[in-house]
Structures are given as structure tokens and as C-alpha cells.
Amino acid sequence: MSNNEKMYDNRLGIIGWLGGGRWGIERYLYIIHRLAGVGVLIFFILHIFEGNLRIFGPEIWNPVMKVMEHPVFKVGELFIIIGFAFHALNGIRLILIELGWAVGKAEEPVYPYKSSLNTQRPLMVIMLLLAILLIAAGGFDLMFLGH
Amino acid sequence: MDKENQQKRDIILHIRRFDPERDESPHLEQYTVKVEPGMTILDGLHQIKQNQDSTLSWRFSCRMGVCGSCAMLVSGRPMLACNTQILDITDRALTLAPLPNFDIIRDLVPDLTRLFEDHVAIQPYIQGQDAEEMENPTGEFFQTPHELEKYLQFSYCIKCGCCMTACPTMATDREYLGPMALAQAYRYNTDSRDRGYESRKSVIGASHSTFNCHYAGECSNVCPKGVDPARAIQLMKRDLVLDYLKLKKRKKACRVMGIPSDVERKPSIPFPPYTVEQK
Predict the structure, then answer these.
(1) Right CATH number for A15-145 from 1.20.1300.10, 3.90.980.10, 3.90.79.10, 3.20.20.140?
(2) Chain A residues contacting B, CB < 8 Å?
(3) Residue A103 banded pLDDT, cuts 50, 70, 90
(4) Is domain B8-110 given the CATH code 3.10.20.30 in the classification?
(5) B104 vs A109: CB contact, 8 Å cut-off?
(6) How far apart are CA B169 and CA B171, in angstroms?
(7) Partner A contacted by B185 (CB < 8 A)
(8) Are B256 and A138 in contact (CB under 8 A)?
């Protein structure tokens, strides 16, 4: 193959992150984990900005707090709870996996092949159930107890 | 004859074509193939080449899932064309495209130079501690079945590139080593005969390498040989972390088993007959 010959750059780029329609559940968790991480990071930056507005005195702080009572921000807070709960618990799953504690040992591949994805799936189910529990508790607190 | 024809079905193959002399970018072309039960995608491509379009290009060799040449994107999923039956995928239409994340040379032929360069980078060979024994062996290195099991799964890799295509990190990081090379690095690091961990560490512990894997798990899902690169990479991360914390166990020296001198052949086992006449 000569280097002069024209080739087409077929790199998927960001579309490769989002994937197609035939991927496994861990691939979707990978995407949601990233989106949740970015979402929580944006919230932290805005939260620090908003919290620091009190240095301008009550004439700025009070109207801002009034705006924060709008239902849109309540829904936003619910999304923060969802993003935080998922990112935290899925993150614990990833830490355990990446330290080699949940992927099992090498085994002889026999068709139909089973992989480390099958080995870590009980952990994934537990973590997702815990995330749902945390979201339900946080959502109940936010919507009905009004904290 | 009628019964044979009854079993055949018309399946539409949408194939991504690219001719570097004519095209600026790839485009889809449609072919209809008469498919019978048991027919593989590779058979379908041969049928198109023989009867419809002789310019269609793809790469293949062994036709039995051993060489890894014919990996391609089948309806969005990387697979071996020789190992996949058309009617298992669809009863109407499917799309064939070259493996993404590699440049396209022509039609379904990807440029795998990058894959092999990454493979070379991780030094994919046994590096023994005893250079003299490696050059002029006096016997065999002793390995227990348990030691063999630690790396055997990862040694089934056929370098087809399916995992490199499915990996989301590969899609954006041009310098990432990729699941194939990293799994092979672990394969050699785990081999009881190998002492190359220290020299591989500068590659596997660097940026765009082991720790850029975030366990999307697709490499293991698509591997046609059940190699499970995702598992190898996670186990290698543990090794690197333990090594950093100075907690990694040192490998025991691998014994060399010489030819036994004090044994005789069992008389009940006859020597096999010579196939060539002895002079």
C-alpha cells in the first residue's frame, strides 16, 4: 500500500460515544455516566456562583432566591438528584470493576461466550437498584416534604 | 430443483462503497442476493462479485473464522463475514460497511496498519530472564495448568479489529492503544515464562493507554472468539495499581525442564511405523 494513495478517514468521532442501536446495557450506562457527570459538574459551578451572590447584599440575594422558587428549578433539582445518585453508584461499580474485583478470572471461551460483562452484572443490578432507591427517597423529600 | 429454489430468499445487501480514484466519500449501493439457509455474508459477497459487480472489494482468507481478515460492520455491529449467516441476521435486508475507526482503502477494506503498529508497541512476545536459555534452549519452560489458564483466554485473539471498532474511546482518541493491543499486553504480562512487564510498563501505564478504558464493555460483546479484552484491561489496571503501591507479587522463576535421562520408553507403546522408507 503506497502512502500516496488516498484513503478515507472513517473515524466515528463523538458519534462513536453515542453508539448505535445494537449495543449492550453497559455501553448505555457508559454514556449516561458521562452525561450525568457533566450535568452534576455544571450544577456545582452554577451552585457556587449562586451561593456567592450573597456578597452583593440582600438587594441582589433576595430577588435571586425568589426566582429559585420557580417550579422549573424544582424539576432541575430532581434531575440533579437523579444525576448524582446514578453517577455516584455507577461510579462505585466502575471503581470495583477497574480494580479487577468484579470481572472474575480468565476462563476458557466456550460458545456461547460469556464475558466479564456477565460476571459484573449482579453488581450492576444492585447498584442500579440502590440508585433508584436514592432517587425515590430524594424525589419524595423534594416534592412532598419540600426540603 | 423447485424445492431448492423454494428455500432461497431474496435479501437486499446495502454495501458502503468507496473508490479512492473516483469518490470523495463513501456511498451506499444496493444488491439483491439469492440466499439459502447456511449461506454466510462472505458467500453473499462472492455471489455479488461473480454475478453482479466484479469491482466490489473486501478482504478475506481462511473462510472459517480463524484469520480475522473479513471483519466488517454488519448492520452496525462488527462481525466476521465468514462466521455470520445472513438469515441469522435478517430475512429482508442488511447493511455492510468497512470497520470504522480505521481509514478505508477501498469498499469494505480497512487500513489496519494502526492495529498492527499498536500490537508491535506492546512487545507481543515472551521476554525471558535467561537470554542464553531463550537463544539455545536446553529443555522446556515448565508451566502448570493453573498458570496457563491465567492467559489462555486472551491468547485466542485473531487480530480482526472488531474490538477496536466497537470501542468508544477509539472513536475519539487517535492515540489510544485500543482493546486488542492492551489485552495482548496483559496476555504476555501474565505468562509465567515472561519477564517483560517492566519494559512494557512505559507503554501500558502511559496516557492514551490502559487507564483510558472506561468499561463500556463493547469490545468483549463483539469479540468473535470470546477473548474478553475488557476483562484483560481491568485486570491489568489492578496490576498497575498494585505495582504503583509496591504491592504487586513478584513472579517466581520459571523452571526449565530438561530432557529426562533416567527413563525408558514403555515397551507396551509401539513406535509408530515410518511413513517414509528408511535407508
Answers:
(1) 1.20.1300.10
(2) 1, 5-17, 19-24, 26-27, 30, 33, 94, 97-101, 103-111, 113-117, 119
(3) very high
(4) yes
(5) no
(6) 5
(7) no
(8) no
